[in-house]
Design a protein that fits this description.
Number of helices: 2
Radius of gyration: 24 Å
Number of strands: 11
Helix content: 25-40%
Strand content: 25-35%
Order of helices and strands: HHEEEEEEEEEEE
Largest sheet: 6 strands, antiparallel
Shape: elongated
């Protein structure tokens, strides 16, 4: 029986190499997860634009004549270092944006009243190369022809303060929108 005098240099190097490979894989996985969250946020934003178009066209003539306007409302919420963008599609009122069906207002303190809350992996959204005005933006479509009355242009999603992830373009005359990564 021999005495164990410790690990050899080769064994230690093998363990270090395995740890380095595992660390590299975990860093890659984190990057993939963040990109997936950003991609989901951009798709959600695009889907909310489509929802706004559909709800605008579905508003009855009675509601339309009473001055109810459907809009997509985007609000930047900051809590410490955490930034989230919240989206609500509903009636534009003086008190805020209300749900089309229930009439319940979007509440900053209650995230369940919003249609979508984008993940914090979207660091910043710029509207037409400017930060969102007063940290909020509205998109309003014309019911008759689908054109954009308010909010047409480009919405740029950033994954860091200077690194662009994707851009959504919203055409003013047609109301069509598309994503460019």
């Amino acid at each position: 029986m021999t005495k164990n005098k410790g690990y050899t240099l080769v064994e230690a190097l093998i363990v270090i190499a395995i740890m380095a490979v595992l660390a590299g894989l975990s860093m890659y996985s984190i990057g993939v997860i963040r990109d997936a969250k950003r991609s989901a946020a951009v798709t959600t934003f695009d889907n909310q634009i489509s929802s706004c178009v559909v709800k605008t066209k579905a508003v009855s003539e009675v509601a339309d004549s009473s001055g109810k306007v459907v809009c997509m409302y985007i609000k930047k919420k900051t809590s410490g270092t955490k930034v989230n963008y919240c989206i609500k599609v509903g009636y534009n009122t003086s008190a805020g944006v209300a749900d089309v069906v229930s009439g319940k207002l979007a509440d900053d303190a209650d995230e369940t009243t919003w249609d979508a809350v984008l993940p914090k992996d979207v660091v910043k959204i710029k509207y037409n190369d400017n930060d969102l005005v007063s940290d909020e933006q509205k998109i309003i479509f014309n019911k008759s022809d689908g054109s954009v009355e308010v909010g047409s242009g480009k919405y740029t999603f950033y994954k860091s303060d200077s690194e662009i992830y994707a851009t959504i373009y919203l055409d003013q005359t047609t109301g069509k929108h598309y994503i460019r990564y």
